[in-house]
Amino acid sequence: MKRIFSIILILLLMTSLLTACENQTELQDGYYTAQVSEFSHGWKEYITILVKGGDIISVEYNAENASGFIKSWDNAYMQTMLHSNGTYPNEYTRYYANQLLEGQGEHEIDAITGASSSHKTFQALSQAVLEQARKGDSSIVFVDITH
Q1: Burial label, 12 (beta-carbon count in 10 A; 0-12, 13-18, 19+)
Q2: Is 0.85 surpassed by the pTM of this model?
Q3: Mean pLDDT over all residues of the chain?
Q4: For residue range 62-94, what is the model confidence (pLDDT) as tens digits?
Q5: Could you give phi then psi for residue 31, rounded to 5 degrees?
Q6: 65-92 b/e with 16+ CB inside 10 Å = b?
Q7: 36 pairs with which residues across the strands?
Q8: Greatest extent of the chain over all pairs of C-alpha atoms, in Å
């Protein structure tokens, strides 16, 4: 009888541990933001996601300057970058955000030629924001990026 009780207790403990581990990988509902800790070339990149029902339903990836102006709205910057790099912020920010949304954070994000620095930043920010969503911690997480 004592042996059966021990076996049942062990099975219950294993089940609760597996459930706890499983819950740590699930995304908690809410808004989550990860932001680069320092400005780079006048911009500070960020990702904000909305999780509902355990799924990412919205992703915003962009950058802002010290006055809060959004990088993908800067037409002069867009023209300069398009001619020199073959892409521009409004294109690559949507591309990267869409890959995170479609892959639900479980797939690697492909880089766009001409936006490799932003790709590196996006990967670091997306990992940080997904970790916040797993914890259910809606405070903004700041990420140190070295280029």
Answers
A1: exposed
A2: no
A3: 85
A4: 999 999 999 988 888 888 888 888 887 888 899
A5: -100, 140
A6: eeeeeebbebeebbeebeeeeebbbbbb
A7: 143
A8: 79
CA-to-CA dists, residue 5 to 8, 16, 19, 114, angstroms:
5, 17, 21, 63
Asked whether 56 and 50 are in contact (CB, 8 A), the reply is yes
CA 125/CA 130 separation, integer angstroms:
9
Q: How far apart are CA 46 and CA 64, in angstroms?
A: 8
* Residue carrying structure tokens 């924001």: 129
In the structure encoding, which two tokens stand for residue 123, read together? 């990967």
CA–CA dist 27, 23 (Å, integer)? 8
What string of DSSP letters covers 40-55? BTTBEEEEEEEEETTE
User: In sequence order, what are the beta bridge partners of 39?
Assistant: none
**CA of residue 134 relative to chain centroid, distance:** 11
Q: Which of 112, 116, 110, 62 is nearest to 89 (CA)?
A: 62
Contact 142, 44 (CB under 8 A): no
Distance CA 77, CA 130 (A): 30
Is 40 exposed, middle or buried (CB count within 10 Å of its CB: 0-12, 13-18, 19+)?
middle
